[in-house]
């Protein structure tokens, strides 16, 4: 933490709530210098009630926000920083994660269904089968998205179909739907006593219910998923005063910025020009490229999404996005599920101790595959194992998988735009892993640039909040934006040499492993090749029936020879 010699001279401060998939943070920035003054972080528990299901407790999410706020205010007070200098609060959040709550009691009616969750796979398959030509991009012209388990509409549909309390609340007009930003803003601005039910354009654009051209909820899309429009939050810009904090140490301060986490990182990385891009390494991995005032539709499996709309009267900006479901989550899996490491920092040491995966390839398709495949039936696979393979090789393969997935979405991005990126701006928790950053530069053959202040997602939300009309303590004019110090990782391999050939060979092998991971888990019955479903498609059932037939034949044979 910086020591302040000129405590009184700090000027206006802006705070940000950064509610991510694995943790919640509250951070306070100096609006003039963009310097991070103080922050606090609390981990969030995830529950996995069934295979492929991922949930979080809405109460715990809200409580973690209050705890982070109180602790940060305490830390600022210890530093002799006057918390009344905090002029605004921005919110940034894990996108797509879906909640429904009762507006009369203020209680959530079910756990939050996390963006990674796969319970809606059968719904998605059914919807795609109903479309002309079984086309997963049937709604893309309006939404910019394929029909996928990833987005909120199918999660909301599941809640309405499977949770009695939700169905009843919808019927009695007590239900409110929202992504995490809506839940937090509603609760923080008063909840059942006048809380503001809103979302911003970036979060709305991840629901499959939002028309990215009209920038509003689409009646036809709502009808397609059979979702009543009255339960949806009001869509606002990413930078305006939504309401005031109603309790806690920051009561009375306006909440005036709201961006989905990946959009916030784009803003925090100052990617305001068309063609600028950033890659965030968090639970998943998300590459966004600013495409300006017009939405660009991808031909190579990327999403078209709203990047930001920084003011009620300002135009919306769009982005192409490559979304990878599992990046940092693979580290958590190696730690919590396999026990190979005790802390995330150990992964780098393990991988560095061997410097190669020794022919081992890891495709972490725990939640199916996102961009560029959009294949929910894929599952994780580790292949190329020999007796020589050990946990260090597996650690290296896990890091390599993150880099290979990034290369896939970068290749798609370059094909869509026709202008290859000459360097990659990065941020997110995993960027502290220096081996990963060097490996990424080598696999992409372009420099990787990491800002020395890694909290760009929270910074983006703070910038949107501080720049809002009625707050206006943070200027977003290019000449006023502070210079960002950064570290550059240059590719260490010669593009013409043996190293480049080996890198290409490993990438081709990894893509082969991706093909092996496809069509693993399907809710459709398995066909015998003639379009008919075979009873032997289930191996245990096949063995059971075959065994029973052999026993009957054997019994007959023995009986005939008595």
From TrEMBL:
Carbohydrate kinase FGGY N-terminal domain boundaries: 14-268
Gene: glpk3
UniProt KW keywords: ATP-binding, Cytoplasm, Glycerol metabolism, Kinase, Membrane, Mitochondrion, Mitochondrion outer membrane, Nucleotide-binding, Transferase, Transmembrane, Transmembrane helix
One Gene Ontology CC term in the entry: mitochondrial outer membrane
CDD domains from the UniProt entry: ASKHA_NBD_FGGY_GK1-3-like
Protein name: glycerol kinase
Taxonomic placement: Eukaryota, Metazoa, Chordata, Craniata, Vertebrata
GO molecular function: ATP binding; glycerol kinase activity
Domain Carbohydrate kinase FGGY C-terminal: 278-468
EC category name: transferase
Similarity section: Belongs to the FGGY kinase family.
Main location, first listed in the record: cytoplasm
TM ranges: 541-559
EC number: 2.7.1.30
Associated pathway: Polyol metabolism; glycerol degradation via glycerol kinase pathway; sn-glycerol 3-phosphate from glycerol: step 1/1
ATP-binding as UniProt keyword: yes
Pfam families membership: FGGY_C, FGGY_N
Subcellular location: Cytoplasm; Mitochondrion outer membrane
Biological-process GO terms, alphabetical: glycerol catabolic process; glycerol-3-phosphate biosynthetic process; triglyceride metabolic process
């Amino acid at each position: 933490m910086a020591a302040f010699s000129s405590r009184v001279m700090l000027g206006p401060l802006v705070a940000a709530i950064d509610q991510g998939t694995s943790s919640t943070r509250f951070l306070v920035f100096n609006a003039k210098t963009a310097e991070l003054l103080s922050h606090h972080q609390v981990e969030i528990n995830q529950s996995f009630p069934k295979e492929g299901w991922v949930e979080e407790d809405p109460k715990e999410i809200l409580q973690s926000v209050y705890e982070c706020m109180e602790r940060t205010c305490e830390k600022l007070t210890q530093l002799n920083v006057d918390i009344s200098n905090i002029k605004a609060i921005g919110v940034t959040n894990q996108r797509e994660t879906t909640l429904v709550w009762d507006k009369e009691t203020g209680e959530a009616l079910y756990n939050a269904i996390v963006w990674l969750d796969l319970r809606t796979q059968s719904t998605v398959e059914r919807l795609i089968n109903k479309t002309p030509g079984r086309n997963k991009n049937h709604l893309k012209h309006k939404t910019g998205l394929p029909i996928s388990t990833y987005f909120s509409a199918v999660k909301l549909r599941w809640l309405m179909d499977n949770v009695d309390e939700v169905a009843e609340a919808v019927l009695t007009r007590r239900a409110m739907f929202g992504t995490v930003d809506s839940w937090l803003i509603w609760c923080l601005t008063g909840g059942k006593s006048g809380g503001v039910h809103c979302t911003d354009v970036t979060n709305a654009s991840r629901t499959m219910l939002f028309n990215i051209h009209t920038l509003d909820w689409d009646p036809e899309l709502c009808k397609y998923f059979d979702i009543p429009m009255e339960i949806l939050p009001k869509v606002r810009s990413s930078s305006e005063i939504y309401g005031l904090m109603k309790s806690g140490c920051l009561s009375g301060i306006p909440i005036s910025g709201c961006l989905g986490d990946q959009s916030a990182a784009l803003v925090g990385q100052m990617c305001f020009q068309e063609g600028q891009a950033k890659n965030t390494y968090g639970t998943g991995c998300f590459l966004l490229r600013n495409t300006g005032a017009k939405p660009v539709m991808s031909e190579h499996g990327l999403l078209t999404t709203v990047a930001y709309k920084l003011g009620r009267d300002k135009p919306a900006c769009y982005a192409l996005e490559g979304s990878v479901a599992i990046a940092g989550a693979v580290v958590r899996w190696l730690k919590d599920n396999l026990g190979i490491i005790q802390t995330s920092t150990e992964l780098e040491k393990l991988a560095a101790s061997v410097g190669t995966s020794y022919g081992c390839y890891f495709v972490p398709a725990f939640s199916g595959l996102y961009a560029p495949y959009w294949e929910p039936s894929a599952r994780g696979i580790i292949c190329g194992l020999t007796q020589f393979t050990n946990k260090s090789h597996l650690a290296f393969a896990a890091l390599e998988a993150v880099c290979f997935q990034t290369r896939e979405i970068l290749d798609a991005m370059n094909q869509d735009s026709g202008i290859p990126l000459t360097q990659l701006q990065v941020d997110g928790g995993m960027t502290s892993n220096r081996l990963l950053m060097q490996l990424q530069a080598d696999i992409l053959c372009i420099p990787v640039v990491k800002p020395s202040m890694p909290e760009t997602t929270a910074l983006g939300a703070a910038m949107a909040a501080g720049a809002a009309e009625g707050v206006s303590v943070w200027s977003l004019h290019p000449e006023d934006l502070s210079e960002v110090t950064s570290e550059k990782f240059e590719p260490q391999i010669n593009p013409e040499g043996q190293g480049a050939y080996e890198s290409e060979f490993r990438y081709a092998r990894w893509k082969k492993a991706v093909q092996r991971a496809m069509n693993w888990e399907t809710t459709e019955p398995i066909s015998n090749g003639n379009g008919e479903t075979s009873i032997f498609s289930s191996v245990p059932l096949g063995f059971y029936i075959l065994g029973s037939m052999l026993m009957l034949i054997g019994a007959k044979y023995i009986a005939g020879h008595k």
